[in-house]
Amino acid sequence: MAEPQQPTAVRGSGEGGGGQFRNAVGGVLCAFALLLIGVLAFSIRLFSVIKYESVIHEFDPYFNYRVTQVSLISAERSSAASIFCQRMESFSQKKRKKNGVYEFWNWFDDRTWYPLGRAIGGTVYPGLTLTAGTLWWLLNSLNIPLSVETVCVFTAPIFSANASWATYLLTKEAKGPGAGLMAATILAMVPSYISRSVAGSYDNEAVAIFALIFTFYLYVKTLNTGSLFYATLNALSYFYMVCSWGGYTFIINLIPMHVLLCIVTGRYSSRLYIAYAPLVVLGTLLAALVPVVGFNSVLTSEHFASFLVFIILHVVALVYYIKGLLTPRLFKVAMTFVIKVGLAFCYAVAVILVSLVASSPTKGWSGRSLSLLDPTYASKYIPLIASVSEHQPPTWPSYFMGINVLAFLVPSGIIACFFPLSDASSFLVLYLVTSVYFSGVMVRLMLVLAPAACILSGIALSEAFKVLIRSMKFQRPSSDDDSSTEGDEVSSVPANSMKNQSKTSVKSETVTKEKPSKKNRKMDQDPEGSSPVGPTREQKLLVLPCGPSFVGIMSLIVLCGFYVVHCVWAAAEVYSEPQIVHTYRSPYGLHVFDDFREAYAWLRHNTEVDDKVASWWDYGYQTTAMANRTVIVDNNTWNDTHIATVGTAMSSPEKEAWEIYNSLDVKYVLVVFGGLVGHRSDDINKFLSMVRIGGGVFPNIKEEDYLRDGIYRVDAHGTPKMLNCLIFVETDGTGFDRARGYEIGKKHFKLTHFEEVFTTHNWMVRIYKLKPQKNRVRGKLKLKSRSKTSSTLKSGGKTNPWQ
Amino acid sequence: MAPAPARHLLLLLPLLLAAAPAGADDLVAELQSLRARSPSGVIHLTDTSVTRFLSAPASRRPYSVLLFFDAAALHSKPDLHLPQLRTEFALLAASFHDRNPGSGDLFFADIEFAESQHSFHQFGVNSLPHVRLIRPEHSTLAGSEQMDQSHFGRLADSMAEFVESRTGLEVGPIVRPPLLSRNQIILLGILFLISIPFAIKRVIEGETLLHDRRVWMAGALFVYFFSVSGGMYGIIRHTPMFLTDRSDPDKLVFFYQGSGMQLGAEGFAVGFLYTLVGLMIAGVTHLLVKVESLQTQRFAMMAVIAIGWWAVRKVIFLDNWKTGYSIHTFWPSSWRIWNHPH
């Protein structure tokens, strides 16, 4: 933070018009490279579109897609049924947008969780849908008529390009444009980010990662410049992040941690204050505006750290201010006095706070946050969270899959960040360390690690290339007393190293001063290790021998080449499956199974608008979005009992299942069976979890009844209960189950309470209709049974209406 | 021996237990006093006491007993977790006792294999860990109910569920003893509060360990190393460092094939390789450039490149071996090369 005038002086003397020209060329090249990086980030995510088609993937994206449609289609909808049928062009665009947003806030979805429904407006993060909606609106007002679905499909790739540009900016703030470009290139194709952002993967993370990196960039930028303008932008960017993803708590804990770190290591400055204080105040106010967060932004423990650091920052700022006012001796006296009084006060406040927090059972932390702090928490206390596959702790191959060779480069990047240590580079290290720890606890947080790993690998590679190429370019003269043979190059080195030495001090200056000196640094080579050497002393050229340097460069290029191959492979083969269309290879060639959409289309065109469809919860989002029919349960698993009811029905014999479904007004039952085509994740495979969840609420369902010797099977050795339950009866029919590789245990039976109405081409989805109740004609029983039936139906169908 | 008054019996229990047909109330009282004498509330049974308390006809046995089968010889086997389960069992007993003080409905007991082999035979127990619930309606010992393996899964909590579902008695929340006692916590708290001013003073003066960037660097590298080697996986899943080969007990298995699981040693080995390459690159870019001697530089760089190659190749090979993924260049027509894992 000292001698801030040096770099400008060096620039003035060291470089003239030629330097400016070089800067201009460098700027153009850099912009061109960034453009290409954007194209790369976008296009590497298009494999799914090319290999399959432009379609939204998986389960949750369908829900987001539906929400987007609703937020776009507006207030004047006449009935819920017409939402998806009406052409959007029929509305005035402006009105739609405005009304759409407010309508969306209050949207109560009656197409799901029948008969409960779900209030959507206040329970989802609106960032993604509003982003896609705005994109769509923008394109349409430019007379580019794209469908909402197309916009949704391509939102993720577009934001990946944005994310790599944001990475460039962030890395540039810490280590210059060279490292920035390298990091942006690496991020454009890092597999663990691709896994969440291929075209069609329309999920919160798609935009959230961009928001995360951009918020970090603005924070670091504010920290470097001390500009209130960037501080305000930072708060807005944070707001966007809060809108987009629950992961915003990572930001609001990481930044305070960094501020605290700076204070503790004696790096407090007014820039730090400007970077942090507005973010907390504005950011918290803005966060409270998002319905799903609301007062949580001041009430939950996830946010307390930011307030605590806010207070500490003010105390420290006050101390520094007083220190400036008083003489050192007076200051010492004042300090001892203030510390004594202040500490007494602080203790009192701390005790109150601790007792308040400790009085709540979870100490004010949500289960998910606790499981990050205490890794064994989830497995002990919240088995439901622990059982989700993306909440498992990753093994080492997961890292190799997710960030590949970056795993080798990151340690070098960490070390590079310490030479020299600036506010920005310390932030990057902190970001990496926290995210790598969190990713170790939960595999899905690998996504948060990916940008950090890319940035640090970019720095590492850029530093390594810098040194190696410098060694190729300049050679140390054979004797150490040089300066005559290679005067030009060598004399330029001390000047550079001087710039480099005051790199941190550059940051304290204003933007205008900083820009040119940065460009200098980009164009020149930067000997890093020379920092402690004074400018007056003769500078040694820091190079390595030429031959090994060449081999080193080649090996690094091969390493990067391997990374590219891996990323393209991962993008093309591993992460591009839409999960709605399945492909299988047989000896006769490739087969594409499009059964899901076939079934949903059938439902949409052949059933009444208000019919209720029951399926296992995995298919809920898709059914509402694609078939536009009301479902009983969906992927937002907020009501265990409801899911357990469906699970119980699926695992009960036909008659009882009919009663349960009838009590829920269900007209159609959709089951998925992969036995004919060998699709593994079908309802038979999910059946045990249906039994478990059902048994968790209704004790008459027992897991043991469905297992033979502890083994789950549906062949001839299956238990009678298993072979009679609804799910089995409905999925059966082929004889040989190719998904599990044995013959089905029970064939040729007649359904009494259900009738098959539709089976898709490859038998993957089968839809059954509940048969209407039969008329009873036998004189005496008729009256009895009728009265009985009506009473049982009212009471929820506990007993059999057939008797 | 003739039926003696309960009082006397209690004093001489270990000797006299053998064949004293006592009334139901006597048996309950005996068990209660035995329980009172055991620190955790778990009664230690032997062959004789099993006969006395558990083989008695149901009419004189109005209580249930949850019996833990222990074997001191097997405590050293890490995959059985016997000592851990035994402490959890004691916790369960203590929690139940806290909830139902003086209850005569359910007793917790343990039995040791070396001293009570006969009882093990009677119960038909031939593998551990084994926990049995003997309820009044069980007429024979072997007919009593065995606790399923799944109920060991979440230790005392899941055992409590088992007990609650089978006996209808309430165990209540499992009371785990805190790591530090209350007084210790208060003491530590006071020490911490006192140390704050000194810490602040040191921090202001800028001469703590915190100001040494090497400490931060080492810390960051360690966290990185620990995380990428899947150390968290080991902590959460309690995976061992290595396994012994089933077919050949002398052979140790360090690497587990299959991507869903990893062993501790395997993770740390690969994590070391990850970190090693990075450290070597950093060493070349930041340290080696400062070295004067060209010869040293040349030699060190060659070594770094060679080791780096080896490490990267090793990781790629291990990853291939473990997950079965074969990474290849992507050509649009190459559908045939790679199949979806079936």
From TrEMBL, chain A:
Which residues does the UniProt record annotate as the domain Oligosaccharyl transferase STT3 N-terminal?
Answer: 29-456
Q: Where is the composition biased (Basic and acidic residues)?
A: 510-525
Q: Which branch of life, at top level?
A: Eukaryota
Query: According to the UniProt entry, which residue ranges have a biased composition of type Acidic residues?
Result: 480-489
Bias (Low complexity) ranges = 788-803
GO cellular component terms, semicolon-separated: endomembrane system; membrane
| Regions crossing the membrane | 21-44, 119-139, 151-170, 176-194, 206-232, 238-261, 273-292, 304-322, 334-358, 399-419, 426-443, 449-469, 541-565
Broadest EC class? transferase
Keywords in alphabetical order, please.
Answer: Glycosyltransferase, Magnesium, Manganese, Membrane, Metal-binding, Transferase, Transmembrane, Transmembrane helix
Main location as per UniProt: membrane
- Subcellular localization, per the record? Endomembrane system
Write the Enzyme Commission number(s) for this entry: 2.4.99.18
Give the InterPro entries listed for this entry: Oligo_trans_STT3, STT3_N
Query: Which cofactors, by name?
Result: Mg(2+); Mn(2+)
According to UniProt, this protein's pathway is: Protein modification; protein glycosylation
GO: which molecular function terms?
Answer: dolichyl-diphosphooligosaccharide-protein glycotransferase activity; metal ion binding
**Which family does the entry's similarity section mention?**
Belongs to the STT3 family.
Return the protein name.
dolichyl-diphosphooligosaccharide--protein glycotransferase
Automatic annotation (TrEMBL), chain B:
Q: Where is the signal peptide?
A: 1-24
* Presence of the UniProt keyword Oxidoreductase in the record: no
Function statement: Subunit of the oligosaccharyl transferase (OST) complex that catalyzes the initial transfer of a defined glycan (Glc(3)Man(9)GlcNAc(2) in eukaryotes) from the lipid carrier dolichol-pyrophosphate to an asparagine residue within an Asn-X-Ser/Thr consensus motif in nascent polypeptide chains, the first step in protein N-glycosylation. N-glycosylation occurs cotranslationally and the complex associates with the Sec61 complex at the channel-forming translocon complex that mediates protein translocation across the endoplasmic reticulum (ER). All subunits are required for a maximal enzyme activity.
Please state what the protein is called.
Answer: Dolichyl-diphosphooligosaccharide--protein glycosyltransferase subunit 3
Residue ranges annotated as transmembrane are 185-204, 216-236, 268-289, 296-312
Q: Which family does it belong to?
A: Belongs to the OST3/OST6 family.
GO CC: one term? Answer: oligosaccharyltransferase complex
The membrane topology of this protein is: Multi-pass membrane protein
Q: Which organism is it from?
A: Eragrostis curvula (weeping love grass)
